[in-house]
Amino acid sequence: MNNEIGHASKNSESDPLEATAVKNYSTKRLLRFAFPSLVGVLLFLTPFIIDGKFTVIIAYLISSLNAYFKAYMLPISLMLTITSAVLSVIVPMTPLLEKSKNRFIQLFNPGAIWILIRVLGAISIIMIYLNIGPEWIWDRKTGGVMLLDVAPVLLILYFLSAIFLPLLTNYGLMEFIGTLLNKRFKRIFNLPGFAAVDALASWLSASSVGMILTIQQYRTGLYTKREAAMITTNFSVVSIAFAYVMLSFIKLEHLFIQWYISVVITGIICAIIVPKLPPLKKIPNDVFTNAPVTPRDEINIDGNPFKFALRKGIERADCAPSIWTQLKDGIHTASDVAITVFPTLMLIGVGGLALIEYTNVIQFLSIPLIPLLNLLQLPEASLAATAILSGVIEILMPSILGAHIESELTRFVVAGVAINEIIFLSEVAIILIRANIGLNLLNLLAIWCLRLLIALPILTLLGNIFVP
């Protein structure tokens, strides 16, 4: 995608007429770009007053569907997890199914490790539902939280995101905005201008999506190792929809707009400062050894920047698959996430909550944070410190634990810090370590700490402004 941007800029230099070619685009092509992008912006990015509160439509949909289907979500969660575990055992043992090219059947042929995770996830859910086995698994404060409180909301989130997020990512909106931000992005973040597109992919879709895209671009030679590490650890935040779910757990939905503005401001400041410090600063600025010859040309805008950006958006929209294909892709993606990530999240979530409820490990490790939180005059510093530190295990943990904090200001800060920490062991850390972009576990923990130390005072300041 970025290669095309580089090539297009060369072509526009060689052909003066191409810079104004946007004038000749048909109404159909313009609408194919503009209409889905506008709907995506209205769904995900435009604040509305609904029931007397500022919110965005996707957040309202998640809340409404969760309320409507709440009675059915527990049996659905049980059925989904148990059925996927059983099928994941059957499919690899059945030659006809194991060799099938149907991508939905192949969802149940993930490899030995993931089969084990799915089976263990299903067993843990059965134990929680029936209250059997060790108490630390099925306790209402551990497994009960994950099965009864987290599972229903996440399943709805997975399917809504998979169906509607392509409106932001598949019809040229990212290319349009990324091209317009090209020079500013390079000047502010010291990254190639075309990295703005990857950053938006991370910010508007999902952290893992943005990371995988950036890693792929690094392996084609588009980024150096340091650039790839900078992008993945500073722009790969969770999606807006997931951010709303996190805020709903901590019971601050009525402050979603103010809170998300604070998260964005904090994220931008972190992305400016953290890459200038070790360990990111010390990562070699090397290109991937086996990368194919890929031009690293900047976006060279010839003529009107808006017209050039519009052309890039329209060209991306031209490549978008049909609505039916996207619907099938969305259902496939949501199913993949639900049957793969959900059991993993259950296992890590139950283990993490049990560690907090049945041991003093997290509380002990969080003690150094308490003086800093007291210095910032955040109420309930001890509870907040434990909630914040738990984010290194799983990104939902701070919101789950933070729900017990009475102070709205402290909850506002805890949820915002959780989003901006970016790195958590249950998913992101594994992806980045396996990517071989100069990041090991110690590097990631150091970056996590840096982002925490920068985010805390900024979010506390903004919280004091926005929280009544």
TrEMBL record:
The keyword Lipid metabolism does not apply. It holds the Pfam family Gate. The keyword Ribonucleoprotein does not apply. The chain crosses the membrane at residues 71-91, 111-132, 144-168, 188-215, 227-250, 256-274, 337-356, 376-397, 409-433, 445-467. InterPro entries: Gate_dom. Keywords: Membrane, Transmembrane, Transmembrane helix. Residues 154-250 form the Nucleoside transporter/FeoB GTPase Gate domain. This is YjiH family protein. It comes from Shewanella psychropiezotolerans.
